[in-house]
């Protein structure tokens, strides 16, 4: 055997050993999140193993730390355990298919954007009758995450209207918003005013969650609707764990917020909000609860506490 062939065989064996170690390490990490399910290379992450968006985010963080690699933008393409291994072996170079750079969001607000937001806040006070309670619970220093139930397109705008620009720097507010808001000029304008971070709700949500965490850590005030989408029947539906996960990772409090009346003003089937009725201005009830601090609570515990508190706030309306 020639020296060149011997060296080639040694290199091949070394590479095989490295690959086996990498594969074994990936499986070991995934097993920690698999709730005693048997993990194989063909195991489907969201099917057989039951991984949701939060689990995928936690997995991504550990994989990035273990292998010193960035895969946040591409982990959403992985369907099986084998796909995860391939992403790591390829250095995370697969494309996620997004037509925008998530790092650009929230887009900088111009002076005109801030003027438009303040104008909307003033007009809202004229068009609708605000009944606000619990503003004393809004922290005066530090970041926090506002968590209102979701009844209408204007919920976020009305929450900021309730708080007012004297109590929060509206140039440093942001929220998670569905990616479809990028599709029209009108909705894009609202996205900029509210500091929207687009979420690919049908694909990879991890880049948006990671960007949201960075913004909170950078001092932004965040608004997240824990239901994930607007109610279609006016009732509060099950909260998802995204807001709680952000609070745990950033070490900031959750502020429960209850909105009532928005469903009557701007339900999903209407193209524009109602402004006045025979009885006068439509009322809006917006209540802020006491901050919920993560402490050593799990995401599941925090989410349950948050939903219970938002539902309780409605009892006084």
Question: How would you characterize this protein structure?
Answer:
With 317 residues, the protein is an alpha/beta fold. It folds into two domains: 3-89, Non-ribosomal Peptide Synthetase Peptidyl Carrier Protein, Chain A, CATH 1.10.1200.10; 102-316, Glycerol-3-phosphate (1)-acyltransferase, CATH 3.40.1130. It contains ten helices and nine strands. α1 (3-31) crosses α3, α4 crosses α5 (155-163) and α8 packs across α10 (299-313). It starts with a helix and ends with a helix.
How are the elements arranged and paired?
Layout: H1 3-31, H2 53-67, H3 81-89, H4 111-127, E1 129-133, E2 145-148, H5 155-163, E3 173-178, H6 185-193, E4 196-199, H7 206-217, E5 221-223, H8 242-250, E6 254-260, H9 262-265, E7 276-277, E8 280-281, E9 283-288, H10 299-313
Brief summary of the model shown:
With 317 residues, the chain is α/β, with parallel strands linked by helices.
Task: Please describe the structure with a list of short key phrases separated by commas or semicolons.
single chain; about 325 residues; alpha/beta; Non-ribosomal Peptide Synthetase Peptidyl Carrier Protein, Chain A; Glycerol-3-phosphate (1)-acyltransferase; seven-stranded mixed β-sheet; two-stranded antiparallel sheet; elongated
